[in-house]
Amino acid sequence: MSLSVTRIGKSFVAEVGGVDLSQPLDSETAEQIRQAWWDNSILVFRDQDITDEQHVAFSHNFGELQGHSVTAWLSRDHPEILVLSSKGRSGAMPLKNGGAYWHSDITYEAVPPMGSILHGITIPPEGGDTLYADMYAAYDALDDETKALIDGRMAIHNYQLRYIKMTEGGARPAPTAEQLAEWQDVRHPVVLKNPDSGRKALFVNEGFTVSIEGLGKEESDALLEKLFAHSEKPEFVYAHKWRPHDIVMWDNRCTMHSATDFDDNKYERTMQRTTIKGTALQQAAAA
Ligand code: SIN
User: Fold this and answer.
1) 36-76: pLDDT as tens digits
2) Pocket flag, ligand 1, residue 84 (CB < 6 Å)
3) What residues contact residue 63 under an 8 Å CB cut-off, 6+ apart?
4) Active site annotation includes 199
5) Could you confirm whether 273 is annotated as catalytic?
6) What are the chain's domains?
């Protein structure tokens, strides 16, 4: 059976069929998937009831993997797997909808991940979708004046504020001194030229981008608010309605995502993510 790649929903999302992710990929199939990923930004694979080992093995086709600075959320047996489970799983502490705000993964690190691969394991019957925003389309749709203002500029990203906000109400453990020391400001281009596609994407997110360099606080806050509101518009967003054992992989350099709410008193939601390391190249590839 040969690989099929079919656009669904929006122009930046495709469903991939004709492949069994529990099996090792031959080099030709891995290359076809990589090419489909650069062409589409988000790939959806249905009915892939894979083990944690198979999830990790599949992910290795796309690069080295990284864990997370909050190690309590990592699978004890497979520390390459981030467990996003309202009930906890594999020794990882429960985390209700950890990604329920607009963000690209881990942009608060000096070299953010290239992409992520999420396995939907237990899906609530209502809520708990994942929204994805197309940051190429968001950039392309900006007016020329805004493009001129942001092209070549750098933004500051930081995890401390977001994390501390989410500890309120006891949803997360207080950060350790080590974590706070690790979560320092990092700089990334506001407009990122994706080295794999050659296309420009808006690279700021509500989760972790705190300011734009070279602007006063008021101007920076107003511009970020405008860019966040712009990129979250429905015309740039695809809502993924999960089925058990969907695998969704996204290019972190040109998309953002946000999980939607669900009733965790009634339902469990368990997802597991591998995260593919980025390269310094993406830093050098600023517009
Ligand atoms: C994430 O933010 O990586 C997970 C998104 C989700 O749980 O839907």
Assistant:
1) 999 999 999 999 999 999 999 999 999 999 999 889 899 99
2) yes
3) 114, 276, 277
4) no
5) yes
6) 4-283 (3.60.130.10)
